[in-house]
Amino acid sequence: MAALSHPALHPDPAWRGRLLACAVALLVLWPALVYSEFKPWILFDPQSLAAAGGFLSDFLHPAHSLEFLAMVLRETWITVAIATAGLALALLGAIPATLLVSERLSISRLGTGRVRWPAALLRQGVRWVLVLLRSVPELVWALLFVRVVGLGPTAGVLAIALTYSGMLAKVYAEILESSDAHATDALLANGAARLPALLYGALPDAAAELVSYTIYRWECAIRGSAIMGFVGAGGLGQRMDESTKMMAGGEVATMLLVFVLLVAAADLVSTLLRRRLG
């Protein structure tokens, strides 16, 4: 019987490229680890393990006293109020900015298809302002406003309003640019102003996406207001900061559960609104 022939085993032809890619990744990653002072072995220090174990074990027994739950409910309401008020103020700035930066709502481009230079200059100036607003994190704005208006929710509301107005205007304009242009162009060509063209032309086609993104930003504002509480902007985050410093894992666990419920509620609202608009 003829011996079975086995195909010759050839080495991976791309092994040199993979080896080079790993070497380059290591060269890039190693300085980052050094300069970030990343020392994971500290986590396995006996003292660190004991402290972390005690703190995490308290998570299995969330705090549920009536007095504590009443405080959590009050601070949760403040957190939601900060996020909602900040987002509402952001919308007051984002909607006019969207009308200015979106070429879809430009009257001067009709006919020639080109935007006149004064309108283009104004549009670019507004875009630069929006870049500035969204480039500065809300946490930095909160730190600045805490120095100006003092501790409390006002700093958080103003911080969310500034950062989110830049984010909302940018994304709103992109959503409108990607929507169907026929209805909007027809309204503008027949003498309609930008706002009616937005409401009756572009908005019906983009409403579901705009609402979904707005609700998503509201979720982000809730998380952001919690983080800003750590720098004195009020709300549930400030209480969580106090509980964390006292290593009260049970209290932190309860507050984290509240955050999960808030985000789940926002997601449910977004789903319901999308179904009604879709």
Describe this structure in words.
This protein is mostly helical. It has a single domain (about 65-275), classed as MetI-like (MetI-like fold, Orthogonal Bundle), CATH 1.10.3720.10. The protein is about 75% helix and about 0% strand. It has helices spanning about 15-35, 45-55, 65-100, 115-135, 140-150, 155-175, 180-190, 195-230, 235-245, 250-275. Helix 3 crosses helix 6 (about 155-175), helix 3 runs antiparallel to helix 8 and helix 5 runs antiparallel to helix 6 (about 155-175). The chain is globular.
Biggest sheet record = none
**For the record, what is the CATH homologous superfamily label?**
MetI-like
What's the total count of β strands?
Answer: 0
Find the structural class using helix and strand composition: mainly alpha
Number of domains: 1
Number of helices: 10
What are the main properties of this structure?
single chain; 278 residues; mainly alpha; MetI-like fold
Give a quick rundown of the structure:
The chain is mainly α and 278 residues long. It is 74% helix and 0% strand. The protein has one domain (65-277): Orthogonal Bundle (MetI-like fold), CATH 1.10.3720.10.
Explain the layout of strands and helices.
Elements lengths: L14 H21 L10 H12 L8 H36 L15 H19 L2 H12 L3 H25 L4 H8 L4 H35 L7 H10 L3 H29 L1
Helix pairs in contact: 3-6, 3-8, 4-6, 5-6, 6-8, 7-8, 8-9, 8-10, 9-10
